[in-house]
Amino acid sequence: MPKMPAVLMNRVALVLFFAALNSFIVFHFVEFWHFPDPDFDSDTTGWMAWTQLVETLQDFSNVDVMQMIFWSGFLTSSMLLASSPFLVTILRISRLAWWTGALTSGVATLAFGCVVLPLVIKSEEISPGPGCFLLSSAMLLNFLGFFFIRRDIPANPVIEPA
Length: 162
Prior knowledge:
Blueprint: H1 6-27, E1 33-34, H2 48-58, H3 65-83, H4 88-93, H5 95-122, E2 127-128, H6 130-146
Antiparallel strand pairs: 1-2
Helix pairs in contact: 1-6, 3-5, 5-6
């Protein structure tokens, strides 16, 4: 099977990064959790996560480990989702930047999955809304985008004598 050229692979990575960024933007405007109880009136749109994060940062007295894992994964992935489409050139050139981004994206995706999936599986009061799926897909698309980044290696490297 022939290999895809590096330019095409980098374009696929760019498309995945922008798809992840678009999914992350839309996440802010849709419902994250769905509460089947009609008496429970709560705004759970994605942008409310930022207000909850600020409240958590203001008072650490009742924060447990799962919340800390969730918020650190959320912040890390937010920074990666917002910056990755614009860093393709740097990621293509620097292996250190690529490894840092890929590992960070993988750990943030894993941390988010380890916190949200048990909540969804165990809970009968809440079910995931479209925002939960959008945020999960944004993290996964961003993580996959790193694996499509390829270095531009010349076909016939020229070595000039000293």
